[in-house]
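Lecture 7 notes: from sequence to structure.

We start with a single chain of 221 residues. Read the sequence below before looking at the structure.
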Amino acid sequence: MPPGRSIPRPPPARPKKPKPPDDASAPGTDLQKASGELVALASQIRSCTACDRECPDRALGTGYPRAPIMLVKEQPSPADAEAGEAFVEDAEALTKAFEALGIPLSWIYGSTAVRCGSSPATSDQIKACATHLLIEIEAVLPRVVVAFGTKTLDAFRALDGRCGIRLPEEVASGEPATLRSDLTLVLTEPLPEGITNKDAKRRLWRDLRRVPSLLGRSDVD
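Now the structure, written as tokens:
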């Protein structure tokens, strides 16, 4: 693989660039509302004491306030926590992948299931932090969620029907799963393995190629 290439390029026949979702150009008032909700959430996250992962450095969600795609990984990396935002180290590789799919960065918002701490998150810690993720989903209103790693599913499972979001009992990697009629989840490889391990890269690319076809649909059979 040539130096500097983090995720395999698509085959010669590239996936057709998806049409912008119906809400890709949200009215200014909607964007202001979403931005205000995310600013308020940031304040809550900085002062949150809901679990024993309390630490001074916390990663916040980042991206377009009304993005049709939301990326969610289990927890922030040390670089994420230091910078105060998600996907700092993963951004370059994921940007290349989405550019190859014809998806602009303005369609993407990134977040984490828990917001701080370097140790692996427990299911209880992810559950305690799930309310933050719910607020983000309701502010951003994505069409598709890409969940990196099975542990991340605990955050969606913890929502247990709140705002109509319910995770199916069985979720297979790469297979779209309906969370509610306007929201679809695609489970893929955990990070950083998905951009550093050769086999995991292939599976990640396979799964991400599902995303463009889902953006034009309100639900998945």
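The chain has a mean pLDDT of 87. Keep this in mind for problem set 3.
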